[in-house]
Specification:
The chain is mainly alpha-helical and 150 residues long. The chain contains four helices and no strands. 67% of the residues lie in helices and 0% in strands. α3 crosses α4. The radius of gyration is 27 Å and the shape is elongated. It holds the Pfam family DUF2512.
């Protein structure tokens, strides 16, 4: 139930923000904005589920900015006719990144209860074992006695 609630908050917030920027300011149809929001919501929520627990909020927000820009720009270019959607995609991605910053804080505060019930390592600390190196004895071919080098 928590996932449905979080995904609904993400979808509605993203839809409102994208419709304001893309729909009202740049004249994109509601159907196109809805489709972009749907693709963006699914892709970013999967990222939030698997990547956010392993990295911090700032890096996740920067990644969300890049993902939002690429999705909005590519889908906007393919779904609309006319001018470039580079600037609207940039503005929309910045708005979504700001929204995602606060959404990540919401997710982190609500998932703290779940993590206490199911502890799993998020920051794996690998260690390397080493030992004193053993050097093999080599035969000196220049020496007729074939003594070993020490």
């Amino acid at each position: 139930m928590e996932h449905i609630k979080a995904m609904a908050i993400k979808f509605i917030g993203s839809l409102v923000l994208l419709y304001i920027v893309l729909g009202l300011f740049y004249g994109m149809s509601f159907g196109n904005v809805f489709l972009i929001t749907l693709v963006w919501g699914i892709a970013s929520y999967l990222g939030d589920l698997f990547i956010l627990p392993r990295i911090n909020n700032t890096i996740a927000t920067i990644g969300d900015f890049g993902l939002a820009f690429i999705i909005i720009w590519l889908m906007g270019e393919n779904l609309t006719y006319g001018g470039s959607v580079f600037i609207p995609a940039l503005i929309s991605a910045a708005g979504l990144a700001l929204f995602e910053y606060f959404f990540h804080k919401y997710i982190s505060s609500n998932n703290s209860r779940e993590e206490s019930n199911n502890p799993r390592p998020t920051n794996l600390q690998y260690q390397t074992e080493s030992s004193k190196e053993l050097t093999p004895k080599r035969t000196d071919f220049n020496n007729e006695n074939e003594d070993t080098i020490k």
